[in-house]
């Protein structure tokens, strides 16, 4: 039986698991939060509580495919110590979710998978180190460098509705992004066409500024725009300010040419419409008894 072991079973992995379970797969997902165990079970995922003393040997032995989507913790990959066990088990496919942040700041220039890595210190540097370590692990690794992820439950609409959205304007600043369902499409395509050692950028076709996306979202739901705040003088947390520290445009030609992927949301306009459609579908199902 095709079995996915999902290491760090979060937002993207949950949607990926849903697609696989619909195809008859078994999915095992790790979580460090005991409260989430029942939620995973309700989604058809077999939870593996990742706490001190966890025994993953049986799950690893049964897994035909592995997805690793956990971030490094304090500079260390939380699952790297499993590499010998994973190698011994011999999975058919191993996917590692990384970030386009490994390219660093290019001043808005385009990057592709062959561009040199120049990550800033911190999270992106840790991701680059983890990529290199897993690529050298002897496993059938596929690296997926993700742009900013958005989708149902993760986008500008909730912030606008709550009045917490900040419209930060930084001249010339652009980001690449990827709709979460398109990540799932790429992962499924990679499993169908495995190519161990290959690296893929996951992003849409239209890099754009965060304020541009916020304006479009506000217009779609008829809410007033937040006041424009100049980045140089805006009061931002260090984490929020770091979000604007880099500017680059990311190419996605490889997922199209090699994996045959057709993006559901090739730009943020389509992505925002998809979020609204998903919200409407969820609201409808909540109002229908038995659904």
UniProtKB/TrEMBL annotation:
<keyword id="KW-0520">NAD</keyword>
<feature type="domain" description="NAD-dependent epimerase/dehydratase">
    <location>
        <begin position="9"/>
        <end position="203"/>
    </location>
</feature>
<dbReference type="InterPro" id="IPR001509">
    <property type="entry name" value="Epimerase_deHydtase"/>
</dbReference>
<dbReference type="Pfam" id="PF01370">
    <property type="entry name" value="Epimerase"/>
</dbReference>
<dbReference type="InterPro" id="IPR036291">
    <property type="entry name" value="NAD(P)-bd_dom_sf"/>
</dbReference>
<protein>
    <submittedName>
        <fullName>SDR family oxidoreductase</fullName>
    </submittedName>
</protein>
